Amino acid sequence: MSRIGKRPVPVPAGVTATIDRGIMSVKGPKGTLTLTMRDEISYGLEDGSISVQPANATKAARAFWGMQRTLVQNLVTGVTDGFTKTLEITGVGYRANIQGRKLKLQLGYSHDVDIEVPEGIEVKTPDQTTIEISGSDKQKVGQLAAEIRRWRKPEPYKGKGIKYRGEFIFRKEGKKK
């Protein structure tokens, strides 16, 4: 039994959820998100909550149960509060700024790195060493943060690079004489 899957997903006031032809649609103040429903899982809309249950007793249905409930929870959270990832840049001369729908990064390469910001995602640079990525779709926010971080991962000796806020970088000791 999935401990996560057993709990129904509460739908707050101002959010509407509909099921139509295998697609769940959740609409709220921050927009509309959709989820393609799995055949192994049955979804139910009760008064103020969404329940997720396995449709049959197969191993695949039990495997998808908790994940599908979490995906439904992410839809509801995305249209009400949204998701945010914060990246921090460490290193001399490393900086970031936003210009229109492009994020311009200077990361010690011979060229600037320009990253196109996808629709539905908002990127802010409160200062030159901080990047805030926010949006209603958790997958898109996390994917953009991972693509930005991939350009210069934090290295273990000096800690230079792009890291998530709160991420611990294991530091190594340098060479000794």
Q: Which strand-content bin applies to the residues?
A: 35-45%
Strand order of the largest sheet: 11-12-7-13
State the distance separating the first and last CA atoms. 58 Å
Q: Note the overall shape.
A: elongated
What share of residues is helical? 10-25%
What number is the mean pLDDT? 93
**SSE string, helix = H, strand = E?**
HEEEEEEHEEEEEEHE
Major beta sheet summary: 4 strands, antiparallel
Tally of separate helices:
3
Rounded Rg: 21 Å
What structural class do helix, strand and pairing data support? alpha+beta
- Please tally the β strands and state the result: 13
Unreliable parts: none
Structure overview:
With 177 residues, the protein is α+β, with helices and mostly antiparallel strands. It has helices spanning 3-6, 59-80, 138-150; strands at residues 9-10, 16-20, 23-28, 31-36, 41-46, 49-54, 83-90, 95-99, 102-106, 113-116, 121-124, 130-135, 161-164. A hairpin with a 2-residue loop joins strand 2 and strand 3 (23-28). It is elongated. Strands 11-12-7-13 form a 4-stranded antiparallel sheet, covered by helices on one side. The protein has 3 helices and 13 strands. The mean pLDDT is 93.
